[in-house]
Amino acid sequence: MTMGRYLLHKLLSLLPVLLGITLAAFTLGVLSPGDPAELALSQGGYEPTAEQVAELERQLGLDAPYPVQYLRWVGRALSGDLGTSYRSRRPVAEELLRRLPVTLELAAWSITLACALGLFLGCAAVIGRGRWPDLLIQALTGLQLSFPAFWLGLLLILLFAETLGWLPTSGTGGAGHMLLPAVTLSSATAATAARLLRSTLLGELGKPYCTAAAARGITPARLVVRNALPNAAVPVAALLGNSLGGMLGGSVIVESIFALPGIGSYALEAIGGRDYPALQGYVLLTGLIYVGVTLLVDVVSMLLDPRVRLGGKHL
Amino acid sequence: GNAPGSSTPAPENSSPVPQEPADTVDPNAEIVLAGYRNLAPGEKDGYYCSKILYVWEPLVTQDGSAAPVPCLAESWEMSEDGTRWTFHLRRGVKFHDGGDFNADAVIANFDRMKLGVKSSSFYPLDIDAHYPNLTAYEKVDENTVRLTFSQPAPTQLYNMVNFGSAIYSPACFDEAGDFKGICAGTGPFCIAENKLDEYVLLERFEEYWGEPAKAKTIRVRVIPDADTRFSALKSGEILGVIDLNAIPAALAVELTGDERFALTTTKSTMIRFLTLSGTQAPFNDLRMRQAVSLALRRSEITDGLYYGFGTPTTNILNYATPFYKDIPVEEDLAKAKALAGEVLGDRRVTVTYLYNGAEAAQKGEAELIASWLGEIGIDCRLTPLEYAVMREQLKTGDYGIARMQQGLSNSEPSTIFRRFMLTGGDHNKNYSLGYRSDEVDALMERASSALDMEVRRECYDRIQEISAQELPVVPLFNDVTLMAYSTRLTGYEAKLYGIELPLVAWAQ
Amino acid sequence: MVRGLELRDLSVTFSLPGGDVPAVEGVRAFFPSGEITGLIGESGCGKSVLGLAILGLLPPYAQVEGEIILDGEELSPGESRRRLGTGLGLIPQDPAESLNPARTVAAHLREALLPLRLPRSAVPERSESLLRDFGFEDPRPVLRAYPHQLSGGMQQRVLCAIGTACSPRWVLADEPTKGLDRTLRGQVRETLLSLPKRGVEGMLVITHDLALAQGLCKHIGVMYAGQLLELGPGVLEEPCHPFTRAFLAALPENGFRPMAGAAPRPGDRSEGCVFAPRCPRAAERCRRERPGISSPFPGRMVRCFLYEG
Amino acid sequence: MNRKKKPDLQLAAAAVLLGSILVLSLLAPWLAPWDPNATDMQVRLQGPSPDHPLGTDALGRDLLSRALWGGRASILLALGATLLSMSLGGLAGLAAGWFGGPVDWCLTVLSNIFQGLPGTCLMVAIAGTLGPGVRNLLLALVLTSWAGFSRVVRTETLRIREEAYMEGLRSLGAGPLRLILGHALPQLAAGLAVLFATRAGRCVLSIASLSYLGLGISPPTPDWSVMIRDARLNYRSAPHLILVPGLCIFLLLLGLNLLGDALRERLDVRTGEAREW
Amino acid sequence: MRDEVILEGRDITKTFRGRLGGHPRKALEGANLRLCRGEYLGLMGPSGCGKTTLARILLRLLEPDSGQVFFRGEEVTRLRGRRLLPFRRRVQLISQRPETFFDPRLRLGKSLLEPLDIFGLPRDRERIRAGLERVKLPAEILERYPHQVSGGEIQRLSLCRALLPEPEVLILDEPTSMLDISAQAQVLSILRELRGACGLTCLFITHHRETADFLCDRVQSLEAPGIPPGSVL
Ligand SMILES: Nc1ncnc2c1ncn2[C@@H]1O[C@H](COP(=O)(O)OP(=O)(O)OP(=O)(O)O)[C@@H](O)[C@H]1O
Ligand SMILES: Nc1ncnc2c1ncn2[C@@H]1O[C@H](COP(=O)(O)OP(=O)(O)OP(=O)(O)O)[C@@H](O)[C@H]1O
Ligand SMILES: [Mg+2]
Ligand SMILES: [Mg+2]
Question: What is the mean pLDDT of chain C?
């Protein structure tokens, strides 16, 4: 019952965020330079007449005051209509959805990689704490955090694809294609996760239940992995969930370097082409995904904790 | 199903990474190429895909010197008064979906064009542009169609070349003229699969009326970034690059020492130039335009940035046409400074310099030019834009300098002169060049009424001289079409318009 | 040889950023098997550190010197760690905090039974019988429960079950009644008293609760500033060391008579007896020399010059 | 002992790194041997030589001069943006945490909105819509990062506010001004210092990414990430073109990260890292 | 003099409204408490019955849902800001957790100056020395930080700080429950001495019967959730 209430609370608190996302996306459209109607008409080298522009403005409802426009826009967005791309003249929603799987695949690979690497490095650092594994991992994560993704991506392509020929440079088509982009995208996140995990694990290890567990004569690895980790994982899960926002954004660079046709490179093309409806759609979509994932992470980390999952029910 | 792709499913092993070359190459193995954009933008595009994929064919195409030659139309004749054209269609031609190519199919395609302008990422599909003054089109018999014009149309063939007379199976578009799926043409290749922004998969059309394509399947990938495209080529993921801007010169020269790769070049019909906003200060003053032209060191651009793939010019006309007049390039910094000084005095001006951000070399070029212009008192604010957006901006005239390019697909110089130099020329207006010369107007008048070739040439020569003097635009260099491919392929040869894809095959 | 746990000049020093902190200094003691020994003293005097040192569970930056001998065998820190579970067990203080909130009781017990290398199938049965031993009539729901679903008393009993799952020979109980109310304190006392019946040879109980100490332990050790000042049976009834006396005088039933002066801060230890600055009977010698161990009567061990010779 | 030395070493390393980068960048106008924008096609793509100690780029510009100049814009912008968002977010967080009630509710909802937006995406979109340039970049950076500060400061303020000694001071009669200025702010300062270092690093990274995409610092201002971007045609034959600017960014980020770590360890503060990516 | 009521709480009710998801918790219902000048009143009750809550309400640190607080016959329940300052000076609190009662970043000496600054009293060294003597602490301790002194010491310091502005009423919320036996005895004996020395009035909250008996004139017990009306005396 408390869980239901918690969920309800969460959902309610998401409302303003959703409002904010739609507002942000809408505002972008308002702020964008140029008259949308004229821009929409004049693509492809035609010169619209003033009447044509006015007519389209009426059609698009651009003559209404902003709040009304906003409501209409949200209404259309709710029914899946994000407008028409200036460049390709296709529905933005359709184009975004067509490209979304690539970005999601990239994000999924990246998160998985960040998760695996973060868990491994974090646990290894704690198990070997104060000795060389710890120092090595600290140094490695420090380096990872200081490497700009675009530089890393370039160097990775140069080394693994162009010189060694082990992995494909670009495009989609299976795990091999995703490896380099995912490594590029997840490197910093993995390092952050490893460091966070290390510090939360150390925090957990200082708690009485870990001393008590150690007194059962178990190995340090078991102490860390089986006892401390389940409790230390919650903030790390939250971090990884939140990092998805960063990954969606970071995918702009990674997709452009690795020629992945996802929504990130779509946004970049939209910017180059002053395709504001597409950009609006991009902001809306990434915002919604982000909110969804945040909610998911909240729920999952709630479920990770039996105290919340089972409530205060006593035996 | 009318899509031929569905009857021949894509090979199971669609891994785009080819195996190491064995001693014997499977001639049917997939060939992977790449370009920077969607060569088959799909249903929403008026043409579905570019001509260079050899999927659809036009009635009329062009040869190496850009003269119109038969394709789906075997022959034609023009009536005495020039208002009626009769086209005799090739027999025994099948569409990919099994339908027959005949007069009905052609009429259906004209009906489709008649529905209205269809936009395209290549050229707009606009019946008024391709067939000005067309009043009627009719089927004469099963293999003959006739076009009737309200005015004499002696140059109509030029208008119909390639994109002007694309023919599709009537079964593949709906009443609104939109494609219902993959388009079906008559070309040597049919599209087996089209994944936007990823690749288009071509398959040999076995029932092609002409010489069949050499390769069984060709996959053309989309790799927008030139550097990534190069990496893919280098690592063997793709075997060649096609389309415009296939490979930047700087990267092409990286391949010259490597026997695994080869370059193919041909004179391009493209000329690269700067447009200067002639409707506002400072470039409404001829002296400023001349100063800019004199301050440029074009050979440093072509030799340095483009590694010799390009020829400096101050002539607006492209060197691929037979009418080209070689005018010596004049560059003189001192004179440029003097001219600019006359206009500006001690002031410096800041102007916006628009360039295409998608083309890797243009930024360096812009910075280089900006640093030269700095010496004559012009500071540049560099702004990367897409061409489409740049054109919008040019129309307003609210810019200083823009780096543009112009192709001349039909080799007829008047096209260029008319657009850029006539007082009412469309580029003159749309790029806000503000160019006006009564002499040019008169010369053009004279040339168009002249039947004598020599008179024409005279006029054209004079106009070229004027263009180099008065600089409606400031030409930079004549371009070279440059493509790179792996030596594991044969038949890879640059042509005026792309490569001849049906000739590409594995080297044995 | 008398069986028991012997400490020989055990010292523990923490190396901290601010300098070294001696938490336990030169403790020499013998806790006989078959008895429950209580350890009392002011807060921060080093009782827990001493206990953890015996178990080998101190953090890496703690330096342990001296010897710990169990039944004639020396225990290095590594050796004690190896014996955890089977040889040495811990009943931690603070039951609510000492169980892993993310794991079930069954998982705890499974882990506690690891050193026995039981076959997989025997583990549940063994767990159930353990819980039954500690007064759970129906252990199955308890096994499935998470710690937060148990009451404080149940948690404490579960911890006892875990601490003694492999029948360790020695058990250390660190403030087993801290924070529990009167009834629960009684329960815990009963549980602890029942341990010797379950194969536990010796037990060390650290506590602030003098009533518990009195009821549970025959031997009592008194610590002050990292040192063991007095040890033996009947310390509470018949205190010898001036500190023990002063300490007991502060008990409510003795009228809250406070000890003069302040406890030394860890680190600033003088030459002589640690208690000398506050000792009402301190002599000049007490401030200069550290007293050795004297025995005023058999079984009693006191570190004070008063009982010398 | 061991534990004491490490942060000191870190701090020293960070100070040296950041100090030298800052000094070199700020003194670039005097230190740089060449005009960073002066082209000379005769000497393009040269390796290190006495004239050009780090070689030249594709337009014959001196790489050393460009490297010296290339950090100024992004460093100043990053510091400015971080300071601005820290002041904004800090104030909002302090107000929300301290006064609670409707103030807290409003500010929390507002910061939730901004936190709920994926920062980098929004930054790309803002920079893309409004066009590149310092002002728009600043706007994008502040809009996307103030909420992070606000959240951390709010949580900290809530914690500090509930500390027993705050209640003690209140029972002694201390007013809100004394409590906030005299006790809460100094408590927050340590956390803010750490947060500043980490966020400044992230800001540098964001600016670099945007500039790399052509949405950030616009030409002809020399900039490290733009230099990397521009080198993409030539770096295979002239690797110094991406190594020099890449190393510069790397060292700057390393310095900021080291500083953050050292401060964290030294001041022993926990910021709400879990909320951040 | 004995009968002059100095601090009084009437019909105090307080319910804590939990955050969303938690249930409201009734901490006090119609609690009454009357403290006469010079008396030491012990307040006992089971854990969670609202003793601390009542103390905080009496100290005006918490707003009651209903009920009033009177200080020397004057209602202070609605006073705020500067108007509350005279009351603050006269009524002081000693908490259960002395170690958290001082700003951890300030030297103890600075923390001791705080009440003097707040009430605009001179920063008198003599006064502080006297205060320290009263709680039997050496002046040297002022140079330390809160985490560098023992529990007994810091509790005595907080006593010293509370006494600096010369209050009339002292509310002690389990001042000894977290201390070990000898430290408890120290604090209690100082409190007992104070009782003789100055005319302080004390409300002493505790769990321990012995402690209450040791120190207090009378003992009142609080039952959850609140004292039945009229149970005073
Ligand atoms: N992990 C540690 N690091 C540094 N110092 C420590 C550590 N553990 C204990 N100490 C110090 O060692 C001394 C003894 O601590 P210990 O926990 O043994 O006291 P105790 O007698 O158990 O007190 P209490 O009765 O309050 O539990 C204290 O001064 C404490 O500050
Ligand atoms: N800030 C708060 N928010 C919510 N509930 C509270 C708060 N403070 C106290 N309570 C609840 O009010 C009730 C009374 O608490 P209070 O601290 O006054 O009890 P107490 O008698 O002092 O207990 P103890 O003897 O344990 O100190 C308890 O049930 C407690 O959980
Ligand atoms: Mg202890
Ligand atoms: Mg209380």
Answer: 84
Determine, for residues A215 and C92 on separate chains, whether the beta-carbon distance falls below 8 Å: yes
Q: Does the beta-carbon distance from D165 to E118 stay under 8 Å? A: no
Q: Which amino acid is at B318?
A: N
Omega within 30 of 0 (cis) for the link into E225: yes
Own/partner pairs, A295-301, CB within 8 angstroms, 24+ separation:
A295/A10, A295/A11, A295/A14, A296/A241, A297/A237, A297/A238, A297/A240, A297/A241, A297/A242, A298/A10, A298/A238, A298/A241, A299/A7, A299/A10, A300/A237, A301/A234, A301/A237, A301/A238
Do the Cβ atoms of B411 and B66 come closer than 8 Å?
yes
Phi/psi for B140 (5° steps) reads -90, -55
Whether residue D232 and residue B227 make contact (CB cut-off 8 A), yes or no, is yes
- Note the pLDDT of residue D221: 80
Touch test B–E: 3 Cβ pairs or more under 8 Å: no
In angstroms, the separation between the Cα of residue D125 and the nearest Cα of chain E is 36
Partner residue facing D168 (CB), from E101, E119, E165: E101
DSSP class of C238: S
Residues of E in contact with A6 (CB under 8 A): 21
Q: Is residue C177 scored above 90 in pLDDT?
A: no
pLDDT, tens digit (0-9, with 9 covering 90-100), for E47-82: 778 888 889 888 888 888 888 888 888 888 887 778
Across the interface, whether the CB atoms of C102 and A130 are under 8 A apart is answered no
Ligand with smallest separation from the Cα of C49: 1
Nearest to E157 by CA among E116, E99, E211: E99
Distance C175 CA to ligand 3 centre (A): 7
In the three-class reduction of DSSP (H, G, I as helix; E, B as strand; rest coil), residue B115 is classed as coil
E180 in C contact zone (CB under 8 Å): yes
Tell me, what CATH number does A156's domain have?
1.10.3720.10
Question: Domain-by-domain residue ranges, chain D?
Answer: 5-27+74-276
List CB contacts (< 8 A) between D199 and chain A.
none
Residues in chain C with CB shorter than 8 Å from the CB of A203 are none
Please, what are the domains in chain C?
A: 4-307 (3.40.50.300)
Q: Which two tokens stand for residue E184?
A: 């408890």
- Please tell me the distance from the alpha carbon of residue B233 to that of residue B33, in angstroms, as a whole number: 9
Residue E167 touches partner D, C-beta closer than 8 Å: no
- Token pair for residue E40? 């030491």
Closest CA to D58 of D71, D46, D70: D46
For the stretch B45-57, pLDDT in tens is 889 999 889 999 9
Distance from CA of D191 to the nearest CA of C (A): 21
Instruction: For residue B380, list its beta bridge partners.
Output: B351
* Domain range D5-27+74-276, CATH class: mainly alpha
- Classify the complex by whether its ipTM is higher than 0.85, answering yes or no: no
Give contacts of C82 with chain A, Cβ < 8 Å. 217
Q: Tell me how far apart the alpha carbons of residues D95 and D83 are, in angstroms, rounded to a whole number.
A: 18
Distance E49 CA to ligand 4 centre (A): 8
- Ligand 2 pocket check: which of E33, E43, E52 to mutate, most ligand atoms within 8 Å of Cβ? E52
Q: How far is B36 from chain D (nearest CA, A)?
A: 16
Q: How confident is the model at residue D198 (pLDDT cuts 50, 70, 90)?
A: confident
The domain containing residue A241 runs over which residues?
A: 97-262
More confident residue, A303 or E33: E33
Instruction: Note if the pTM is more than 0.80.
Output: yes
Q: How far is B422 from chain D (nearest CA, A)?
A: 35
Q: Please tell me the total count of domains within chain A.
A: 1
CA distance C205 to C160: 13
A180 domain-assigned: yes
Which domains can be identified in chain E, with CATH numbers?
A: 5-102+168-221 (3.40.50.300)
Q: Is C295 on the interface with A (CB under 8 A)?
A: no
